């Protein structure tokens, strides 16, 4: 199960099984989406499956998530999202009313994101062999700007920006399962971020973009530091976390840096444009909480360091599996 | 008369930087032997010519009369042709590819140097850097091998003519003492204000005035910076605590002399031997009731860590202060101690009112060693300055060179080859970047100075330990994952030179188990090669994972929920955490970020919170240490706990249940703490006796950080011995995670020996 948690185990699984089997240049960059040529036009193509529990939660449901998630994967590749497909795997006996609710929110999310769901598929599996409803969406978008987004453009001196307060989706889901005696006035951050991304790309030289989903911001930063062969130094006090999320994380013993978001991204921009980038982001409602959280540095290559509020320097590591205490 | 013979002798072991060549020279003179002696990277080489009885006496003397700091491991002799030369010479050192010579540990100032320090007629009168072949800095200033001045941080100080003469004179105490220097040619002591500006006048005298006014002084020691304040100055000590952002971890105190130390703590003969010995550790001893130390020095502790001056600078300082002063590591909270000047000036600026420092660079950071005496023998808690890098002798071979990477917190690593295991200095908590760097650089340094190219790299089973990840990134070696508690027991076996099999009791905070849960209250049947988990404490969830370690009340919640469920009585701990209690319980019940653990440390945490001793900790092991300190030694009652029937599961919940009932009945904490310790010891003795019945094994190894708790250790060891069992304890390496790497190394070697 650790292989799905989004950390190093996921990375190892992907590299060992899928890249090996399907080897081709578009896949090997391991970005959120693949850049492909279609009749001379540059398209981005991506796919993602959604298996959230519970299916309905404050701020959204699996339908929103499936549309926004795929739109966001296209957006962080610099593409303008156009069309989606939707595949459903339903467990026998899944209530039609729930399915209607999900499709309605998918339609609404698609309309908000300006994309069309143009094809789909449904399969029903036996009772007990599914978790109610799984959704898979694929999406295509067109890349109509010249850019060189990717970890290889990341260099020392760049600024690392987070587009808004982190961890809200993950904590909302944990609470929404209803098993924990905990209350927090919190909703998922699920949202389509393509407009926010476009605004940023229009304004400043962006070197890398990635949405911070499973494994949270910490995992994205580790992937970037490792692939770029640089260090990323984060100021703990600069990381935007709502007090209510912080409180819940403390109670649950979680580090917000590792908690999933569904409407936040990490951008690495030319250091001299850091302030402009934040200004541009903050003008958009989804980017109101944007902040520069750290810098790219040359050393120590491949590591993410956190300057703590106590003045220490802690290593923010890529988790191999579920977080387990390391204390003896 | 028999004709003259000539022999070639190679002496291996700790024979460099300890006055070995002048000793050989003297020995040769004594026996009328001619020839020469020299150092190379393999140790000491000698050619000696003389008549057989004289040669025999000379060779025998190499071992028998060796200088105090030397450790002669091997003397290899081969016969050669006589040359008929006259006289005996000391020849220059040879560098070379082999790296078999040992680097000596840093050694406390010897009596001869101390006498010079207080002799106004001596040119080293009050010289803060005096040293000789019998004492002074070694490990912390060595940058390479062979051990020569050029391979130390004294390389930049050119000797004056007078020092050069002593250095070249084979009969002088300073013959080839690499850090030799004097006021004319050595490092310079300086006193800087908080702003970094140099102060005029004698640095020591002014520094002492500042201390006496209640100032906090950063002092550059052998292995790093310390922070000093007067030990009895309430306000100054409290200020130091506040500025260090360290809530409660006890501070060590330096006493000017043995009498002053004796006025602070009860010292038994072994403690005195350790305090005054050449390794000069901090000795943890029972504090006297009337000890003149401020409340904030060691709150919540019945013990006090004391040490004596171990460098000329500390002697000068202590003599002039003329009373005990706190001397604690120069860092903020969990950072490593500062050892580079610029870094210290920056990091310690918010803490120190002044800096007493000098320009001899520290090459390797080394914390003070910390030991205590248990049953008349030394028990190390932190093995570092003064002990490292002397090898830990074990009676087994390492077929191929081993690197063992240790644990995550209180990390040490170990490199081993042949019959020697070099356990590193205390590295610290690897999650801190500076510490991780000392870890990787330390490994490189050890491999270089001991000429080890690791073919086998052993690491912990925990996938998230940074030491594990480091091991997995190494190339050109065989990897071996070692279970944490097996490594603990193996470290105890190595400590005692015992091969096993034994019954192992491994009690600690947490270690990754073979089943993916967190172990820590384990009964193993183990030898060096393999182990079987024969029993353990009953697993409980840790609501919040690492948060449950920082907040012992969460462990109380987890235990109490297992005991009482929804029928939880009205306990003070529940009321203190009303707002979060239900969440912790729900996490425990649903397994939400609540990994299961059989940890003994977490059991102590639960009891500490339940009895109101401590709900939240600021340093590792704090709750357990404070619970131990509350034990009423006169209380003989013991809580009882059941043992599982088929497997040896210790129902630790029974102990917690009994604690809760006594809390409800209003029994004093001191009695509860005692009954808990007694009860835990008793049930472990019962479990071990059952294992003894099953296996026939009659030796029991006790290891793991929980056994720093001497109340538990004494009761358990006593109970086991009453049952006719032999108990193995730690005497040379710490029972805690500082000993893990040695355990990993000897396991790796045993597996190799078994398969080849
Ligand atoms: Fe341990
Ligand atoms: Mg995705
Ligand atoms: Zn000396
Ligand atoms: Zn001199």
UniProtKB/TrEMBL annotation, chain B:
It is an enzyme of class 6 (ligase). This is Carbamoyltransferase. Pathway: Protein modification; [NiFe] hydrogenase maturation. It holds the Pfam family zf-HYPF. PANTHER family: CARBAMOYLTRANSFERASE, CARBAMOYLTRANSFERASE HYPF. The active site is at 21, 39. Keywords: Hydrolase, Ligase, Metal-binding, Zinc, Zinc-finger. The gene is hypF. It comes from Acrocarpospora phusangensis. InterPro entries: Acylphosphatase-like_dom, Acylphosphatase-like_dom_sf, Acylphosphatase_CS, Carbamoyltrans_HypF-like, Carbamoyltransferase_HypF, DHBP_synth_RibB-like_a/b_dom, HypF_C, HypF_C_2. GO terms for molecular function: acylphosphatase activity; carboxyl- or carbamoyltransferase activity; double-stranded RNA binding; ligase activity; zinc ion binding. Belongs to the carbamoyltransferase HypF family. NCBIfam families: hypF (TIGR00143).
